[in-house]
Amino acid sequence: MDKALGDKRTILILLGPALLVYSLIMLVPIVWSLGYTVMDGNPIIGFQFTGFDNFATFFSDPAAWEAIGFTLKYALVLTVLQVAVGYGLALLYVFWLRKASSLIRTIVFFPVVLPTVAVALLFQRLFEAAPTTGPVNALLNSFGIASVDWFGTPDASFWIVILMDLWRSMGFYAVLLYAGLVDIPDELLESARLDGAHGWKLVRSIVLPLSLPVLLSSLIFSINGTLKVFDTVVALTNGGPGNATTPLTLYMFQTSFTYGDYGYGSTIALMLTILCLLFTVFIFRSTRRDLTKG
Amino acid sequence: MTTASMRRRLLPLGALLGAGALALTACGPADGGSSAGGDDKTFTYLGQTENTTIVKTLETLGGDQCAAEEKAAPLTTDSIAGTQWDQKLQLLAGQGALSDMSMAAGTPSLMQQFIDAGQVQDLSKALDDLGVADKILPAAESTIKALYGGDTLYALPTELNIEGFWYNKQLLADNGIEAPTTWGDLVDAAATLDAAGVQPFAAAGKDGWPVTRLVGDYIVRDLGPDALKKVADGDAKLTDPEYVAAADAVAELGKAGYFGDAVGSVDYNAAMNQFLTGGAAFFYMGSWALANFNDAEQNQIGVDNVGFAQFPDVEGGAGSIDQVPANVGIPVMLSTNGYTDTTADWLKCIAENYGDTVLADSGVVSGFALENPPADLPETTQTVQDVIANAPSSVLWFEALFTSKGTTVSQTNGGGLGNGTLTGAEFMDLVQSANDQG
User: Fold this and answer.
1) What DSSP line would sit under A102-160, residue for residue?
2) The overall pTM is greater than 0.90
3) Do B19 and A20 touch (CB under 8 A)?
4) Domain B43-160+328-385 maps to which CATH number in 3.40.50.150, 3.40.190.10, 3.40.50.720, 3.90.1150.200?
5) Nearest-by-CA chain A residue for B12
């Protein structure tokens, strides 16, 4: 095997096809899109070189800043909730439900496999205010509270998007973190218990530090996934009401394909990439310091 | 060379070819490109899923008056959802793959790009060459030309619509209200109805445009028919106080709850249903809704119970009530790529027969001249024809001359205006800055 992998031709044969496909469908469009950031126009009217105009537009565009604001707010709120609820569920599986947890795990994981559009339709019906009254409003009405137009008010729509995504993803994070928790040796927990660590103290001093690496992975997964949110928002609110729930990704999509401005759309895409990169580096940095101390 | 060593040498080549083929299929069109035009053997049409009238009429023509054309180049139709319409057209136009005939871009500014890029057939010339230029009604022709800013006809008027307030005669009579002729009357009527527990207006706030149309009409009535053209030319801004006043007037209706509690979630069909089941007194809509009004199954209040009032005068305004808000719905265009001899034959046949067929079968008033008008038209349809015949001039709608972005921003925020969460100034600010970005 060593001999085969030492041969350059073998490496080329094994890697070549995958590299070619990857280059053609990933790298080429990325470089292409980078080129568009200094252009103005679309395939119909052609492209013109405009230098850094698109970047200037981006920094002075209130809609872009609103989209960044929404993206950050959404990413932070959802990451915290996803990982916290996921961790809570994982603790529940390991320390409370133990062997009986498989059924609950399956049930909580179930929304992860459902298609986003189906879940969005479900939530649209749940919170519907017109033309028919959805279950949630019907419940409010039965307590004598007037119906709320959930998708017509900016704050309410934000929390419904969060709620739906939390419901959809908490099962995934629970399983991810569960895998990290079951890796903690039983002897270690046993000896900590003998030393008098129980409940919250056990979690804080033993479980949390030992599951920090997997928590870190979850955080990076989550922040990157949530910064790039697209399908949930499109299917549930399509960025509305107005542009109250429009993340950068949707703004980029609309700019490129609805408003026909490929150049500015690519600029927004580049900004989103930089944002994701910054967040990942920031999380890596901050947690690495903790690990070495701890 | 042994077979084994040859096989070894060919292996990397085969792998590369396989990978390349895989990559190429990934770049190919997802739907097999069935709707692309350009050949002489079929006549392709692409439309919006929501609009079944055009495709139904074309199919009827293909089986009857245009049977010879259908035999030479069978009609092949395809459709996609209206919400993705402009995106899809841009992608098709970018690849030079527009259908022989398709509904035009929803945004006139996008249509302008297609025209500038030479993708859309010059119909003034084509119809002249075919000797059927007189089959397009002058009113429809001038509306289309105003829309695309030129002296050339680039689309066929498959509809000719007027817009205004349709009202439930019974509900108005019960509350002692007459059809309003001034904005003040309309606001008073809404207050009276609201106090009596009747929702004054049905409106699709989710779609937005039924609300923003009111803003546009108010501007035209208050500041005169050229007020929106001034905005498009840069001589005025939507954020100027006299323009903001129009948005404020509509926002006040929204704040008072006259559009209903959940107007932001009401879509087109729901609003239509609300009006046709007696759930609201007024309904601002175009005359394309006649098809729904004339359908006894949908219209539970009865077609005789539906009245039409022109958008009212604004007291002291420069506009007048007889300037009818008009549009040609979404007209159809022909692509230059697909304009072959067989397409020209189809065009001639459509120009000669579309008007009669669509009026007789679907009750839609089109911009084509009628040869044999049907004798027994419903009263509402007759009203629309009379208004069109008697109108001295027409005006365009609020977003007609906006950019793609301006149109989208205006319509997505229409719901906010309708439920009172946006003030007139905030709304106009959003729309103006979207238009400025272009």
Assistant:
1) HHHHHHHHHHHHS-HHHHHHHHHHHT--SSS--HHHHHHHHTTPPP--GGGSHHHHHHH
2) no
3) yes
4) 3.40.190.10
5) A13
